[in-house]
Amino acid sequence: MLCYVRYIARNMIGPTLFITLSLTGIVWLAQSLRFIDLIVNQGLSISLFLYLTLLLMPSLLSVVLPVALFCATLYAYNRMMGESELVVLESAGISMMQLAKPALMVAAAMTAAGYLFTLILQPVSYREFKDMQFFIRNNYASLLLQEGVFSNPVPNMMVYIRKREPDGVLRGILVHDNSGHQPVTMMARQGYLVKTDQGPQFILQDGNRQEVNRDTGQLSLLHFDRYTLNLSMYTETSDMREREGQEMFVHELLNPPANTKDDLRLRYAAEAHQRLTWPFYNMVLVLMGAATILCGEFNRRGNIKKLIVAAVVGCGVIALAIVLQSNAVKHSWGIPLMYINLIVCSLIGLQALHKQALPWHYLMKKTG
């Protein structure tokens, strides 16, 4: 009997991994487009770009995994039904619940992986992502200045360097500052970037400063041996920032500081309960998908109607989960509904596998 369990589980694991990688790749690519500007206009290195986007993977995987598993469940059982393998197993005395057992075992493993993502990896990786993003936004001039590239390390400033030495010395520097009423252009033989208590500073050596009066068109020229350009006036200099909900662990979300505002406290609670409930949708969606495909009458001409119904049911369950989570952000009574939805859907799937029929199977029979 264990042979059919391994067989069905093996038929599910492959498609699950394939669909997970495909969906994650698509979502990752869409998310990555937000950082294209840092590469094209500001010279962010490819390695740093990849590191930033890969930090988003745990949160993406936690969202994609239940959907991928649901699709794999429909694919595996529909293929086995089309090749009459399920008919043979049923003829051998295997019940619907036993046929669904391999899928539930895979779902249990994916649920455990989902909790690993949402409870541990997601807050750790997203916190690192936001820290890196904050660092780049406020101190990234030293990272974004590339040789032979016109870049915008801070707003309203364009910088060009001819060469960058391994020790951090920059040679052949051109800086154009358009933040004030009068545009300023500075050229220097060399310089370097430093971080001070007053914020990041650009030290220019052996150059000149040119300022054009917009009203009169008169050029003001100043030669200097050393010139300090304070970048803190263009950026936020605080080393502290407020943590977002996605960066916090569940116990931090459920026990925020006493001075936390009520609306923010409710958002934190909704985020915490979303992480506690969403991984279990691996089990719920597999139950609903397996029950829809396995229960009801077998049609040798095809099971397209069952697949359509299963897809509609799965999308409905996911949509309801999203709506309830959005509602929980605004109303505290929405949090219990998140758990009620899980319980009700699970009971419907389990009851259907025992009774070998779902409510919509009767509707399908009448319309068929």
Outline the structure in words:
60% of the residues lie in helices and 15% in strands. It has helices at residues 2-32, 36-40, 46-54, 57-82, 85-91, 96-139, 141-144, 250-254, 262-277, 281-294, 304-330, 334-355, 359-367; strands spanning 157-164, 170-177, 184-196, 199-212, 219-230. It has a five-stranded antiparallel β-sheet, with no helix packed on it. Strand 3 and strand 4 form a beta hairpin. Helix 9 (262-277) packs antiparallel against helix 11, helix 9 (262-277) packs parallel to helix 12 and helix 10 packs parallel to helix 12. The longest helix has 44 residues, at 96-139. Residues 360-368 have low confidence and may be disordered.
Topology:
Blueprint: H1 2-32, H2 36-40, H3 46-54, H4 57-82, H5 85-91, H6 96-139, H7 141-144, E1 157-164, E2 170-177, E3 184-196, E4 199-212, E5 219-230, H8 250-254, H9 262-277, H10 281-294, H11 304-330, H12 334-355, H13 359-367
Antiparallel strand pairs: 1-2, 2-3, 3-4, 4-5
The percent range for strand residues is 5-15%
Average pLDDT metric = 82
Along the chain, the helix and strand elements come as: HHHHHHHEEEEEHHHHHH
Strand order of the largest sheet: 1-2-3-4-5
Distance N to C terminus: 35 Å
Query: Whole-number radius of gyration?
Result: 29 Å
Q: What is the helix tally?
A: 13
**Shape estimate:** elongated
**Protein structure class:** alpha+beta
Q: Got a strand count?
A: 5
Low-confidence stretches: 360-368
What characterizes the major β-sheet? 5 strands, antiparallel
Percent helix among the residues? 55-70%
